[in-house]
Amino acid sequence: MSLAHGRPAVSTDRFATAILLEDSGNNLSYGDVEEIESDLITIKYTPKMNSAQMYASGIAVESYVAKSGGTLDVTVVGLTAAEEKSYFGATLLTNHNNLLVENKDDYVPDRMVIWSTIRSNGHINLYKVMKAKFTSQGEEASTSDDSGVKFNGTSLQAEYKALINSGDIMFSEKDVDPTTEAGAALIAQWFATALGGLVITGSVDDDSTAPVVTATGGENQIALSWPAITDATKYSVKRYDSGTLTVLTNDLNTTTYTDTGLTAGTAYTYLVQAYVDSVWSSSASSHLVTATTESA
């Protein structure tokens, strides 16, 4: 059985996407963030939930509900032909007055979808859907701004789902105060790169499921260590570089790891994730840690 709970469409403050370049067990990589400049964008996201029961000898013994992705409904006023080309894989003929050509061989890429909304108190809600594919569009969709002025725009719809790499579906930060230094920095990070704002350099809060990692530079190597996490059966170590997470190991049963064969005098950044209750989750992920190898 599938359950869907929609949220009302709201006007966004900012809206952007980044093409998903690789999503595998070993690597997660996105392209540059591309922000759409529009006077009015509305968005509605509708999560989908799968529910079922487990049976033993014909008797229901356990019920569960699991998230399985959802849909995004977006209306954009003033979507350009170049943006439509990017979103729907069409061909743009610039030497023919920007003629947009759609055909059966068009490839629609998966994307991260990034947006923000403004709360009544002036604070910001931030959202990132990790993997979405825009599937259809409708021209001249009517929408209106807060004052009731009507506009004609383009309706976009996307199906979103979990990443193969981590199982993550969506991240959000609510009630961010843009007038504070920390709030302004988070908003800037959120839209600067695809993974910006999701893993933040610094000390981890007191959370027993998040590894607190120490990184030490050596001769052509970086040594990582962290205290054991309760109920963790294994760990994943990933190297982070310019918006790309590369898996170094996904089956580590100790709390130390040494990354070898590195370049002398170079900084490297890492993320460690614990496998708890048969799940890789963001709540069991460390913050980014950086160390520099010894100079030659």
What are its keywords?
disordered N terminus; 2 domains; three-stranded antiparallel beta sheet; Immunoglobulin-like; 296 residues; 2 helices; mainly beta; 21 strands; globular; 16-stranded antiparallel beta sheet
Could you walk me through the main structural features you see in this protein, from its secondary elements to its overall organization?
It is a single chain. This protein has 296 residues and is mainly beta. The chain has two domains: 2-192, no CATH class; 214-292, Immunoglobulin-like, CATH 2.60.40.10. Helix content is 7%, strand content 55%. It contains two helices and 21 strands. The chain has helices at 81-88, 181-192; strands spanning 2-4, 10-11, 14-23, 27-30, 34-35, 41-56, 59-76, 91-93, 99-101, 111-118, 124-144, 150-160, 170-176, 214-218, 221-225, 232-241, 244-252, 256-260, 267-276, 279-285, 289-292. The chain has a 16-stranded antiparallel sheet that branches. A hairpin with a 2-residue loop joins strand 14 (214-218) and strand 15 (221-225). The radius of gyration is 22 Å and the shape is globular.
